Structures
1.
Amino acid sequence: MTYFKDMMDRMSFFPMDKLVKRDDLSKDYFINANWALYCENYLEGFHIPFVHHGLSEVLDFSDYETELYYPYSSLQLGVAKSKEGTFDLPVDSPDYGRNIAAYYFWVFPNMMFNFYPWGLSINIVYPLGVDKTKVSFISYVYDETLRSTGAGADLDRVEQEDEAIVENVQKGIRSRFYHNGRYSVTKERGTHHFHSLLAKFINS
């Protein structure tokens, strides 16, 4: 429960008991990049307006927010520009009154739990080599009528866009011109948290 308590508390309103696993919507992706780069990409918000044009039409990038749950998880709130395709939140939710289109939970070291009004997409990241990664998308649906709306409308397209940028980053960090920079205080809180955990476990 140390890993999942914060997520379960935040999503206590979500109808977990109504989720149905959908093999037809589940898929494995193979990426020519290091697994940690894939996690970094998931955890930072800089790339969204430039890489995910469809997602940017739905989400309000100016309202991008990351919450850190110590020691092992974090949450990125997908706040929409309008109420369409958003959660019908109970009054006791800390997000009541906001247009939440998605809850993106990351759990160290390699799990993502993406909650949408239609259901849940779990992503599990498997390192296959220094520059080879498998990402398993496992989908659970409870409201089929909502699957074509909001931030979770076209997960395959978003994944393909993520793969392209992560593979380019893999090439870029091998360049002699690459130098790491400072973390963004607002957009890379999740990335810094991930790197801190990696350093802790590698050095322990």
2.
Amino acid sequence: MLKGKVFKYGANVDTDAIIPARYLNVSEPAELAKHCMEDIDTGFVKRVQPGDVIMATTNFGCGSSREHAPLAIKAAGASCVIAISFARIFFRNAINIGLPLLECREAVDNTEDGDTVEVDITNGKIKNKTRGGEFDAKPYPDFMAELIDAGGLIEYTKKRLEAKGA
């Protein structure tokens, strides 16, 4: 179960807003985290706490197909992103690095910036602890859930290889 404060954004938050292109020569997650969301929310990095949740309306993660964006979000401490919809490449990149994403219009429509939510990734349940309300997102298929639980594709692959004695 994840629990955190919501940082809410609008539509079409692109990968340049998540991690500005001027930092793409950086690959260290901790360094990327220092610049997460800085062009659209200058105080995000100072306010975000481990476990907090990013929420947005539609097409979150549009733009360039860079893994830096979900990596910066995860390294900044956000436990997941909830939106009405995601850009498909961002969605896949997030799953590959173990950042959970949920699509749920009702949760987005009934949650405000600063609310506290509890998120059960396994069952797709989102509870707004500040305003009340429980919302259902579609849970992940088993394979994708395994990737997220493992911490991403690389960790998943390492565990599979270790299990086979490779």
3.
Amino acid sequence: MEGIVVKSTGSWISVRLPDGNRVDCKLKGQFRMQDIKHTNPVAIGDRVEIEHAGADSHGMITQIRQRDNYIIRKSKNLSKISHIIAANLDHAYLIVTLAQPQTSNGFIDRFLVTAAGYYIPASLIFNKIDIYTPDLLSILDELTGIYEQCGYPCYRVSATRGDGVAKIRELLKGRISLFSGHSGAGKSALIKAINPALNPRIGRLSETHQKGMHTTTFAEMLELQDDGFIVDTPGIKEFGLIDFEKSEIHRCFPEMDRLLPQCQYKNCTHTHEPGCAVKGGIDTGAVSSLRYNSYLSILNDR
């Protein structure tokens, strides 16, 4: 049988069959050490083949189909090992909040670079607009202007009040979409607003640090009423890039990639070379200084 991985708790992997039924499966031993670069050989969204004897029995994953794409980050405790967040995605959405908690520009850009590096279209959803002060709304206008100029669609929503939820619901139809962001950014609340039949756990903020407290323990693919799926991920504190060479980073900044042909040198790193169109673009407004600083920060981590 063929199916798609919709949940993995480490011990058990839940596979959704084409008829909508789910089978709890184990992973065949040969896959456990097949690729030690990743902490999880099977990821949410993987298309797999299983052996299954029938009702009330567990299955065995015998084959993992080649992935169209996947999104990864550094494992929390092992800097040289990566964790596959999800595979075979149609779109990736980062849930961003400017307060309670605040999402940094560096976090946003590292997420977008990773999505671009693995050929996953990405957008930003700015949540909690109902609590934004006039100053925060002004910052929101600035940020949406920056990222939309780069080619990233930006959406403003309030999961609690309902603003913008219908638009997001429409975008998700018939697609496999990833929702990611910090704990407390409102991923679970937004999912429930999109589809009230779902009941993801909704967390609260730490009053001391105004940071999200983890509620989603494992990533899970949730089935929507309108023929679509959301991959709900645990809250992420940091987004560490892995498997990127320095020479590849600027290619994942669309506004910089567009200017590369205008640089004096074909292999321009946009750091010290004369005649760099990207550095010149900062003066003209074609490149945001915020984005450029994120680029330099990522380069320094390589």
